[in-house]
């Protein structure tokens, strides 16, 4: 990729694009559905439905898939470049990022056309209003940074009392600690940046 250019996002539905990416990455890794199921703790039937575009995975399933495929989360939302040149640059214009929706969050991977990034920036709308909307706190390798752009959120973790963040507030934490975010009275928007300690993103 020429450093002065960026790759346009595919026009297809986000769920169908994700389905195609999961299938392609699984084949590239030489994994069967059964093998990926064991590595990701996602059932074979669920994996099959995701690859066929019949099921839109939750955020926790996406984290599990990335772990099972040994790729960063962002790899599920963009087509990987053939090589990683020096002097890379990516631009995401307002409103152009693909949105993936789960029950808890709507999120957009920013500058997703660059592969092998050291961190993954996500523009995220927090829809969940209660911790009961999560089957469990999320845990994965790496670290995370959250900056509240609008509204109010509460950050729940394994080891700390719930932390309320308002617009302009920020939080940084270890991703291996169970965590989840819920919105206040209205949906909130945050810049959510994650890094991975065991791999480039």
Automatic annotation (TrEMBL):
Keyword Membrane: no
Domain of life: Bacteria
Keyword Transmembrane: no
InterPro entries: Cro/C1-type_HTH (IPR001387), Cupin_2 (IPR013096), Lambda_DNA-bd_dom_sf (IPR010982), RmlC-like_jellyroll (IPR014710), RmlC_Cupin_sf (IPR011051), TransReg_Diox_bact_type (IPR050807)
PROSITE patterns to which the protein is assigned, alphabetical: HTH_CROC1
GO CC, one annotated term: cytosol
Keywords assigned by UniProt, alphabetized: DNA-binding
PANTHER family: BLR4304 PROTEIN (PTHR46797:SF20), HTH-TYPE TRANSCRIPTIONAL REGULATOR (PTHR46797)
Protein name: XRE family transcriptional regulator
């Amino acid at each position: 990729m020429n450093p002065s250019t960026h790759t346009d996002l595919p026009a297809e539905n986000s769920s169908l694009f994700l389905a195609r990416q999961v299938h392609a990455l699984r084949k590239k890794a030489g994994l069967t559905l059964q093998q990926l199921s064991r590595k990701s703790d996602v059932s074979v039937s669920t994996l099959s439905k995701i690859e066929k575009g019949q099921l839109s995975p939750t955020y926790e399933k996406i984290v599990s898939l990335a772990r099972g495929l040994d790729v960063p989360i962002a790899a599920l939302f963009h087509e990987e470049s053939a090589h990683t040149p020096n002097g890379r640059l990516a631009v995401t214009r307002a409103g152009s990022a693909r949105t993936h929706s789960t029950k808890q969050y709507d999120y957009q991977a920013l500058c997703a056309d660059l592969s092998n990034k050291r961190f993954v920036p996500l523009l995220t709308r927090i829809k969940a209003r209660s911790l009961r909307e999560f089957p469990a706190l999320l845990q994965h390798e790496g670290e995370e940074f959250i900056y509240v752009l609008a509204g109010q959120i509460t950050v729940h973790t394994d080891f700390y009392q719930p932390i309320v963040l308002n617009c302009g507030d920020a939080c940084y934490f270890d991703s291996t600690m169970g965590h989840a975010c819920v919105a206040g009275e209205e949906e909130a928007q945050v810049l959510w940046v994650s890094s991975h300690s065991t791999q480039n993103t």
